Amino acid sequence: MSVGALGCGRKSTEEVETETVVPVTTAAAQMGTIRAVIHATGDVNPGPGAELIVTAPQPARIAEITKAEGDRVRRGDVLVRFEIPDLNAAVVSKGAEVTAAEARVRVSRDNLARLQDLLARGVAARKEVEDADKELADAQSVLSQAQAGRGSAQQLASRSTVVATFNGVIAKRNHNPGDLVDAATTDFVLRVIDPARLQVDASVPIPDLSRINVGSTARVVVGEEQEPVPMKVASRPAAVEPGTAAAPVRLSFVSTPALAVGTPVQVEIDAEEHTNVVLVPAQSIVREADETAVFVAAGNKAQRRPVVLGIINKDHAEIKSGLKAGEQVIVTGQAGLPDSASITTEKPSEKEEKPKIEEPNTKKDGTGEKK
Q1: What are the distances in angstroms from CA 285 to CA 104, 307, 321?
Q2: 318 is a domain residue
């Protein structure tokens, strides 16, 4: 009897918890527009044609370097002079070959003209004229080869003096005058970049590539206290390597950024946009195992409502089904809240920003009216 009396006179723990009044804050689900955002990592690199790697045309000694690391350069400025005696000797040698070939062509042409005249007067044989014609053709072929060789030697010799091909800055200097260097990119002398033509090479998951369009807006997230740097999608890959999880997407800056080449960055790329959909604050979403839900304030009770989500960003979540616009969803206080729990609605603290849902891409004119 005593056990039965005790059981009848005391409420269960679950009943006591259910009757506890939980303070919550709410916000109305609203119709609006939301855009998906693809997050990726990347690096800041020079854009196409915005990088010059200065190397020796062949193993050589550096005679002069005119700029230091960090110096600005202008198009046409001399950057490096190499000491390469062999190249100058090659130019002289190839020039002599051209001179000799030109002399041979002149002699062959004169001889052919003489024999053709003799043939016309019946003095020379036709065979002699044919042989002279063949000799002239051979001489002209040798001349063409000699001229090509001289051009190659001159072009190679011209590389002993390297000039800037664009306005930029010396990003790296690896050597000093007097150093011996190899003709390899691993042993380069200077690296010149154009800071006005930088880009971000972002690594985007393969499933997200189809959601990105060339020209789409994007941004580099620099830090919490700094404004994001605006960008645009410049290109996306036409093919991907089999078995890879991500592919490179090239992003161009809208204006010259204050970012150094090689800086690792986080990027956000705007993808598809859904209009006229039900939106709620992102923090109102409750996830339990594989199910997502929101709590709706129905009078003084909390009603758990399973929902199907669409696009989600840091501020808002799209509700595809399970909720209607105008219903009050619980934004704070819903963690661990049981279904049908008693609630009391609190006003947001004046020190905190009230949760709100804004329509992306909605601008206001000077009168405060939406366009």
Answers
A1: 90, 9, 13
A2: yes
Q: What is the pTM of this model?
A: 0.65
- HEC readout, 286-342: EEECCEEEEEEEECCEEEEEECEEEEECCCEEEEEECCCCCCEEEEECCCCCCCCCE
Does 223 reside within a domain? Answer: yes
- Is 224 buried (19+), middle (13-18) or exposed (0-12) by CB count in 10 A? exposed
Q: What is the CATH number of the domain that holds 331?
A: 2.40.420.20
186 and 207 together in one domain: no
How many separate domains does the chain show? 4
Please tell me the predicted confidence (pLDDT) of residue 85: 76
Which run of H or of E encompasses 72?
A: strand 72-73
79 within 8 A of 164, measured Cβ to Cβ: yes
Residues 131 and 228 in one domain: no
Q: Which of the residue ranges 81-95, 266-280, 347-361 would you say has the lowest mean pLDDT? A: 347-361
Q: Is residue 9 part of a domain?
A: no
Amino acid (one-letter) located at 251:
L
Q: Is the pLDDT of residue 357 over 80?
A: no
Whether residue 343 is predicted with pLDDT greater than 60 in this model: the reply is yes
Per-residue pLDDT for 5 more than 50?
no
Q: What residues have CB less than 8 Å from 268, skipping those under 6 apart? A: 37, 38, 39, 218, 219, 221, 228
